[in-house]
Amino acid sequence: MRRNLSSPLPRRMRRDPMAAYDRLPAPARAWLAQAVLPWSAASVARLWARALAESGCAQAAREYLDAAERRTLAREGRPPAGSPPPAAQRFSGPE
Q1: Could you give the CA distance from residue 61 to residue 49 in angstroms, rounded to a whole number?
Q2: Is the pTM of this model over 0.70?
Q3: In a domain, 16, yes or no
Q4: Which DSSP string do the residues of 76-89 spell out, in sequence order?
């Protein structure tokens, strides 16, 4: 495969996702481990920093992450974790 080596655009650096995860504070890592959605460590770090800037409290930051996940689930039309599943339709099969 040929690559455009003379492009004037800066090259993108590939970041190590595990290193980003390791840089998260312990409460943010714990939240990410139990999150319903597959959040990236960079997204959680951004939300965590914003929440800490607003509240200054780790518990409030965790609640902020929970609220962000609920908003995202609502936007996608998925029920939040822990809610009962929708009524299953019974397969009647051939009679």
Answers
A1: 8
A2: no
A3: no
A4: HTPPPTTSPPPPPP
